[in-house]
Amino acid sequence: MNIVGVESITYGVEDLEQAIRYHQDWGLTLVAKTDASADFELVDGTTLHLRRSDAPDLPPVNLNWLPHLMKSTVREVIWGAADQATVDAVAAELSKDREVTTDADGTIHSIDNLNNAMGFAVTKRKELTLNLPEINTVGNSGRPDKPAEATIRRAVHPYRYVHVVYWVPEDTQATVDFYINRLGFKMTDDMTGGGAFLRCGNSIDHHNLFLQRNNDGYYGFQHVAYEVKDLDEVAMLGQHMEENGWRTNVGPIRHNICSSFSWYLWNPAGGAIEALSDIDHIHDGWEVRTIDPSQEGFYGHSWTANPAHRGVRPAQWVDPIPEDA
Asked: How far is 178 from 111, CA to CA, in rounded Å?
């Protein structure tokens, strides 16, 4: 299957104005707004949609998590395909055992094996190529005779989606098999009992989908990751969000699976949100690693800037539960 990555995400939200303000602070471009909805674009042309949680045309909520994190959530993820033939092939495959609906423009809608709403559409993304950051290091002057670009703070605008993460209760194998055998995803890293990092069939990202096992019965959407230019933009965006009153989950950190420099924040539209840079790029010669998530010092991050976040994992709630939950 010639699937390239996340194309569009739709949230159902309790507080639309708060969710709009959040994503404007996040640096997305607001392209349309009504009393019941808002639409945003990323730099590469992929999209995000906010809808009031009671909108009748939204897919149903499919989430079991902490109570205060269930009021708003992602209702559908649309995956981008290289061509309509791929979309049609996915429709034919899924229609073998589940309902598939088709829009006038050829976009299809269905569910995965955990009832997460999903769709497929011909991608409209623009291919982007950025210059590598110029840096100096020991014995190597990559930036001779000029100050670093990041010495001047700038507004940050996420360029593209990288991945989404779903909680999977107890056993992830059936869900891994669904995405690999039926949708053409590829395994990058196998966390055995902890989950699986999968990439789309036509993607070099370390993962476009992480299926994370949870032994407390959680299921449904956990977080979405966006790519920015470099490490400085991750830090600038995270700091900007905190200065505007938004709560950090964990970050900045350097992951030891996928290598990304990341900053996670809680999102009032649902779950968490991640800004990242310098994620691993994977090609077909990659050998899948088998990782024990209980291995000391491996799963998680190699360093954490904030001492209060040491030992905290992405999407781990460590603060008191809000009284209005």
From this structure: 11
Q: Kindly report, residue by residue over 6-25, the tens digit of the pLDDT.
A: 999 999 999 999 999 999 99
CATH number attached to the domain at 3-122: 3.10.180.10
How open is the CA angle 212-3-108, to the nearest 5 degrees?
95
Structure token digits, residue 192: 């055995």
Distance, CA of 212 to CA of 172 (rounded, Å): 7
Residue 304: DSSP 8-state: E
Three-state DSSP state, 267: coil
Asked if residue 57 lies in contact with residue 204, where contact means CB atoms within 8 angstroms, the answer is no
Residues 204 and 282: beta-carbon distance below 8 Å: yes
**Neighbour-count burial for 105-115, b at 16+ CB within 10 Å, e otherwise:** eebbbbbbebe
Number of C-beta neighbours around residue 67 at 10 A: 10
Q: What is the mean pLDDT of the chain?
A: 94
| Separation CA 218–CA 209 (nearest Å) | 17
Domain with CATH 3.10.180.10 in the chain: 3-122, 160-309
pLDDT in tens, 18-48: 999 999 999 999 999 999 999 999 999 999 9
Does an H or E element contain 163, and which?
Answer: strand 160-169
- Enter the CATH code of domain 160-309: 3.10.180.10
Looking at the chain, how many residues does it have? 325
